[in-house]
Protein backbone atom coordinates (compact mmCIF):
# COMPACT_ATOMS: atom_id res chain seq x y z
CA UNK A 1 0.00 0.00 0.00
CA UNK A 2 1.43 3.38 -0.97
CA UNK A 3 1.96 6.01 1.66
CA UNK A 4 -0.61 8.31 0.04
CA UNK A 5 -3.24 5.58 0.08
CA UNK A 6 -2.38 4.84 3.69
CA UNK A 7 -2.79 8.51 4.60
CA UNK A 8 -6.22 8.63 2.91
CA UNK A 9 -7.64 5.78 5.03
CA UNK A 10 -10.74 6.92 6.89
CA UNK A 11 -11.13 10.18 4.95
CA UNK A 12 -14.30 9.26 2.98
CA UNK A 13 -13.42 11.11 -0.26
CA UNK A 14 -9.67 10.41 -0.51
CA UNK A 15 -8.71 13.93 -1.52
CA UNK A 16 -11.52 14.38 -4.04
CA UNK A 17 -13.19 17.26 -2.25
CA UNK A 18 -16.85 16.97 -1.46
CA UNK A 19 -18.91 13.88 -2.20
CA UNK A 20 -20.31 15.40 -5.42
CA UNK A 21 -17.02 16.11 -7.12
CA UNK A 22 -16.09 12.71 -8.49
CA UNK A 23 -19.51 11.87 -9.90
CA UNK A 24 -19.86 12.25 -13.66
CA UNK A 25 -18.22 15.03 -15.64
CA UNK A 26 -19.98 17.95 -14.00
CA UNK A 27 -17.03 18.90 -11.82
CA UNK A 28 -14.82 19.18 -14.94
CA UNK A 29 -17.32 21.27 -16.91
CA UNK A 30 -18.32 18.50 -19.29
CA UNK A 31 -16.56 15.87 -21.31
CA UNK A 32 -13.94 16.62 -23.93
CA UNK A 33 -13.96 20.15 -25.28
CA UNK A 34 -17.52 20.90 -24.14
CA UNK A 35 -17.99 24.54 -23.21
CA UNK A 36 -14.36 25.39 -23.80
CA UNK A 37 -15.06 29.08 -24.33
CA UNK A 38 -17.49 29.45 -21.42
CA UNK A 39 -15.41 28.13 -18.53
CA UNK A 40 -12.40 29.58 -16.80
CA UNK A 41 -9.85 27.95 -19.14
CA UNK A 42 -9.92 29.10 -22.75
CA UNK A 43 -8.54 26.77 -25.38
CA UNK A 44 -7.59 29.47 -27.86
CA UNK A 45 -6.06 27.18 -30.48
CA UNK A 46 -9.14 26.09 -32.44
CA UNK A 47 -10.86 29.47 -32.35
CA UNK A 48 -10.53 32.15 -35.01
CA UNK A 49 -9.63 32.03 -38.68
CA UNK A 50 -6.87 29.81 -40.01
CA UNK A 51 -5.07 29.39 -43.28
CA UNK A 52 -5.48 31.10 -46.61
CA UNK A 53 -8.40 31.05 -49.02
CA UNK A 54 -7.63 31.62 -52.66
CA UNK A 55 -9.79 34.24 -54.39
CA UNK A 56 -12.75 32.86 -56.34
CA UNK A 57 -11.43 34.11 -59.68
CA UNK A 58 -8.11 32.34 -59.12
CA UNK A 59 -9.78 28.97 -58.49
CA UNK A 60 -10.42 26.52 -61.29
CA UNK A 61 -13.49 24.30 -61.09
CA UNK A 62 -12.69 20.90 -62.58
CA UNK A 63 -15.51 18.45 -63.26
CA UNK A 64 -14.33 14.88 -63.68
CA UNK A 65 -16.07 12.05 -65.51
CA UNK A 66 -14.86 8.47 -65.88
CA UNK A 67 -14.42 7.13 -69.38
CA UNK A 68 -16.27 3.94 -68.38
CA UNK A 69 -19.38 5.99 -67.53
CA UNK A 70 -19.17 7.72 -70.91
CA UNK A 71 -18.94 4.28 -72.54
CA UNK A 72 -21.88 2.83 -70.60
CA UNK A 73 -24.14 5.84 -71.23
CA UNK A 74 -23.16 6.54 -74.87
CA UNK A 75 -26.41 5.06 -76.25
CA UNK A 76 -28.44 7.18 -73.83
CA UNK A 77 -26.57 10.30 -74.92
CA UNK A 78 -27.39 9.48 -78.54
CA UNK A 79 -31.06 8.91 -77.70
CA UNK A 80 -31.19 12.28 -75.90
CA UNK A 81 -29.54 14.08 -78.80
CA UNK A 82 -26.33 14.80 -76.87
CA UNK A 83 -24.22 12.49 -79.05
CA UNK A 84 -24.13 11.55 -82.71
CA UNK A 85 -23.73 8.05 -84.09
CA UNK A 86 -21.14 7.81 -86.85
CA UNK A 87 -21.21 4.17 -87.90
CA UNK A 88 -20.23 2.23 -84.79
CA UNK A 89 -18.72 5.29 -83.12
CA UNK A 90 -20.38 7.71 -80.73
CA UNK A 91 -19.25 11.32 -81.17
CA UNK A 92 -19.86 13.81 -78.36
CA UNK A 93 -18.45 16.62 -76.27
CA UNK A 94 -17.91 15.67 -72.62
CA UNK A 95 -19.04 19.17 -71.62
CA UNK A 96 -22.51 18.43 -73.06
CA UNK A 97 -23.06 15.14 -71.23
CA UNK A 98 -21.69 16.03 -67.78
CA UNK A 99 -24.12 17.65 -65.36
CA UNK A 100 -23.23 21.37 -65.02
CA UNK A 101 -20.51 20.83 -67.62
CA UNK A 102 -21.01 24.22 -69.27
CA UNK A 103 -20.63 26.02 -65.93
CA UNK A 104 -17.30 24.37 -65.04
CA UNK A 105 -13.93 25.80 -66.04
CA UNK A 106 -12.52 22.40 -67.05
CA UNK A 107 -14.14 19.05 -67.85
CA UNK A 108 -11.63 16.23 -67.45
CA UNK A 109 -12.04 12.61 -68.57
CA UNK A 110 -10.50 10.06 -66.20
CA UNK A 111 -9.37 6.53 -66.99
CA UNK A 112 -10.37 3.35 -65.23
CA UNK A 113 -12.76 0.54 -66.07
CA UNK A 114 -13.42 -0.83 -69.53
CA UNK A 115 -14.36 0.80 -72.81
CA UNK A 116 -16.25 -1.46 -75.23
CA UNK A 117 -17.57 1.09 -77.72
CA UNK A 118 -15.73 3.30 -80.16
CA UNK A 119 -15.90 6.80 -78.67
CA UNK A 120 -14.82 10.10 -80.18
CA UNK A 121 -14.75 12.38 -77.17
CA UNK A 122 -13.92 16.07 -77.00
CA UNK A 123 -12.97 17.43 -73.57
CA UNK A 124 -10.76 20.04 -71.91
CA UNK A 125 -8.40 17.45 -70.38
CA UNK A 126 -7.75 13.72 -70.43
CA UNK A 127 -5.66 11.48 -68.21
CA UNK A 128 -3.15 9.23 -69.95
CA UNK A 129 -5.20 6.19 -68.93
CA UNK A 130 -8.38 7.63 -70.45
CA UNK A 131 -6.65 8.34 -73.77
CA UNK A 132 -5.21 4.81 -73.80
CA UNK A 133 -8.60 3.18 -73.14
CA UNK A 134 -10.39 5.28 -75.77
CA UNK A 135 -7.76 4.59 -78.43
CA UNK A 136 -7.61 0.85 -77.64
CA UNK A 137 -11.35 0.66 -78.40
CA UNK A 138 -10.76 2.40 -81.75
CA UNK A 139 -11.91 5.86 -80.72
CA UNK A 140 -10.12 9.16 -80.35
CA UNK A 141 -9.69 11.75 -77.61
CA UNK A 142 -9.66 15.35 -78.82
CA UNK A 143 -8.81 18.44 -76.79
CA UNK A 144 -11.49 21.12 -76.96
CA UNK A 145 -10.90 24.52 -78.57
CA UNK A 146 -11.03 26.08 -75.12
CA UNK A 147 -8.19 23.83 -73.89
CA UNK A 148 -6.08 24.48 -77.00
CA UNK A 149 -6.57 28.25 -76.64
CA UNK A 150 -5.49 28.07 -73.00
CA UNK A 151 -2.38 26.09 -74.00
CA UNK A 152 -1.47 28.66 -76.69
CA UNK A 153 -1.70 31.61 -74.26
CA UNK A 154 1.69 32.77 -72.99
CA UNK A 155 2.39 32.45 -69.29
CA UNK A 156 1.63 35.56 -67.23
CA UNK A 157 4.88 37.39 -66.63
CA UNK A 158 5.43 40.16 -64.15
CA UNK A 159 5.43 43.79 -65.34
CA UNK A 160 9.05 44.28 -64.19
CA UNK A 161 10.36 41.91 -66.87
CA UNK A 162 8.37 43.68 -69.59
CA UNK A 163 9.56 47.15 -68.57
CA UNK A 164 13.26 46.37 -69.14
CA UNK A 165 12.97 46.57 -72.95
Structural class: alpha/beta
Number of separate strands: 7
Helical segment count: 7
Number of domains: 2
Main sheet record? 4 strands, mixed
| Helix-strand sequence | HEHHEEHEEEHEHH
Rounded to an integer in angstroms, the radius of gyration calculated over CA atoms is: 32 Å
Model regions low in confidence, pLDDT < 50 over at least 5 residues: none
The span between the termini is 88 Å
Helix content: 25-40%
CATH fold-level assignment of the largest domain: Ribosomal Protein L15, Chain: K, domain 2
Second CATH tier, the architecture of the largest domain: Ribosomal Protein L15, Chain: K, domain 2
> For the record, what CATH class of the largest domain applies?
Alpha Beta
Whole-number average pLDDT? 86
Structural account:
Part of the 50S ribosomal subunit. Binds to the 23S rRNA. By secondary structure, the chain is of the alpha/beta class. It folds into 2 domains: 49 residues, Molecule: Ribosomal Protein L15, Chain: K, domain 1; 97 residues, Ribosomal Protein L15, Chain: K, domain 2, CATH 3.100.10.10. The chain has a 4-stranded mixed sheet with strand order 2-3-5-7. A 3-stranded parallel sheet has the order 1-4-6. The radius of gyration is 32 Å and the shape is elongated. The mean pLDDT is 86.
Amino acid sequence: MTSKKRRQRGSRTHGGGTHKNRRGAGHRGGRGAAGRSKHEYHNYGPLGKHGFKRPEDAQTEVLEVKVQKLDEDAALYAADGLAEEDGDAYVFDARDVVEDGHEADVVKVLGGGQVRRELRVTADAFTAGAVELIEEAGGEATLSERAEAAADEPENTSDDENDEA
